[in-house]
Every structure is written in C-alpha cells, then in structure tokens.
Amino acid sequence: MRLRRVFVAALLLTGAIATVLAGFAVWLFAGFERPYADGPTVTLVVPRGAGLDEIARLLAAHRVIEDPLPFVFGARINDMGPRLRAGEYAFPAAISPRAAMDLIASGRTVVYRLTVPEGLTTAQVLKLIAEAEPLAGELPRQPGEGALLPETYNYSRGDTRDGVVARMEKAMQAAVEAAWAARPADFALKSPRELAVLASVVEKETGVAEERPLVAAVFLNRLARGMRLQSDPTVAYGVAKREAKPGDWLDRALTRADLNAPSPFNSYLNDGLPPSPIANPGRAALMAVVKPASTDALYFVADGTGGHAFARTLDEHNRNVAKWRALMRSKPEPGRAAP
Asked: If we measure between CA atoms, which residue out of 153, 191, 148, 190 comes closest to residue 170?
C-alpha cells in the first residue's frame, strides 16, 4: 500500500509539473504573439554582435516588448536568433514580440536622406556630407570638381561618409556615360570630360529647368564659331579659388577687375572650355548639353524675372542688356520704398 501511495503521489506531482509547464508554454506562445498595449513608438539601435538574450533585454528595457522571455522563446523555436541583424529600427507602438523579431530580422533599418541640389561645388557637397547625421567616419578623400552627382541619397546609421561619397562618384560616372552615349553623331565636344565641364557651366547659368537646353545651345553655338563662352560663373569660380572662399564659391558680385583678371577659368579671356567643371551638374544639365535646343542664339542675359532673354545678334543682345539695366535701376534699394 505504501508503494502504491508513493507511486500515486509521483504521478500527481508529474502531472502538476506538466500542467505548470504546459501553462508556461501557453503563456510564452500567447506573449510572443500579443502586442504590448502600453508600448510606445521607439527608435532603437541594435548593436553589432548582440546576442538573442541581449537583444531581448534591450527591447524590454526600452519598452518595445513587455517581457524578454516570450521574445527569446519565439525567436528560438523559429530559429531566428542567428538572423537578427544589427542596425537602427523604428518600432511602432503596441508591437508584438513576433513583429519586433520580424522587423529586426528583415534589416529594414531607419532610412535617412541627404539631398544634394544641382550646381553645388564639390566643397559645398562635402560640407553637407560632413554635417549629415548619423553618418560615421571622416572624409579622407577630396573628389575632383564635378565628380559628385546631385540627387537624394538614402543611408542608414553606421554608413560611412566615405561610402556615400563613393556612391555619388559612381552615380556621376554613370550619368555622364549615359549622357555621352545619347550624344548626336555630329556632337562638337570631344570627350565625356568636356561634356561634364560644359554641363556644369549650364547648371550655374540658369536655375530654370526649361532654359537648360537653350543655354547649352548658346554655348555650343559660340564654341562652333570660335567665340569665347563669356560666362560669369566661370569667372566667379576662378576668383573664389584664388581668394580661397569657403565652398569654392564667390559670395559677392563680380567686378570689372574680376572680369579682366587672368585665370584659367576666365572665359572672357580664354578660348574654349574651362580646365575643369565649376560645379556638380545634374542629369538634366548633362542631357541638355547632348540634346540642346534648336536655336541660332549666341547671347543671353537675365530678364529680371528669374529667366533669361536670348538673342541671335549682338544688337539684339545689347537691347536686352539695356532693358535689364533699366529694370535694375528701377528697383528700390534695400530699405527704401519704391517711388
């Protein structure tokens, strides 16, 4: 009888333990799938080399999940521990441990965007990159002028500044090659390098998208006739280089002395193209050079509205210049009311 009572007691204890374990398993399963109702929206960095237990504790400490145990349990039974990836993640409010696990395993990290406007110098672009957070590392290389394609670049925390520069260089090379491949059979420029140089001048001459093919046509027409470009932005770039201006760009109006000062970039004094780009042209400026407008225009001047007036002859151009100067004289000085 005594042995029988011991056996019955052992069975009851085993059953109790099984019941407790089953209940615990049910709690783990349920907890793995249940959203954490009090969980806030959290942006959190999962560090490199962090193991499953460390990640679970990190998520719980920042209230992404309520308890680390269901997360660890679910990740292990799904064999997801080795697939969890380091990075910065944005966890929505009231997320479940399963959803948090899936997000970390997906590698869908927080995406940052850096927009590089057309027409910036390389020095100006590098300043943007240096100030962009949370990019990592320094900028050991100084790319040449015109080597970085202006557009919007996505990156994640931990990406390096040097890596972003390399992407910009690769994108510019591809853009120049694509534009060069689209050139007409009788194209006047001799190399992709010359294409990039002229595109940079076009980019700096106008901020009006539809004018780019017109401005490109004027410069190509002038080159075909042996005329100098006479482009103010080329002069400004050379002066900024000589005066070591921040960003390699002039922060004042050009003077008569600037226009008369010898410089490799002074297109009033030198024939042909400048020795290098004067800024980073965008795709549209590159394509404008290989697909210019059909026009005989040889001149253009600002029209006072943000665009330009184009002319075929010097007389017509001089009349446009006179109109622009009259418009400038009619504008009130800063701080003075118009008459």
From this structure: 148
Reported as a single tens digit per residue, the pLDDT across 144-184 is 999 999 999 999 998 999 999 999 999 999 999 999 999 99
Q: Which of 119, 173, 164, 167 is nearest to 139 (CA)?
A: 164
The model's pTM is 0.84
Distance CA 135, CA 63 (A): 27
Q: Enumerate the H helices of 182-313 as residue ranges.
A: 192-205, 212-224, 232-242, 256-260, 283-290
DSSP 154-187: EE-TT-BHHHHHHHHHHHHHHHHHHHHHT--TT-
**SS3 assignment, position 44:** strand
Q: What is the largest CA-CA distance in the chain?
A: 127
Reported as type and span, the H/E element at residue 122 is helix 122-131
Give the CATH number of domain 34-109; options: 3.30.950.10, 3.30.300.30, 3.30.70.100, 3.30.1490.480: 3.30.1490.480
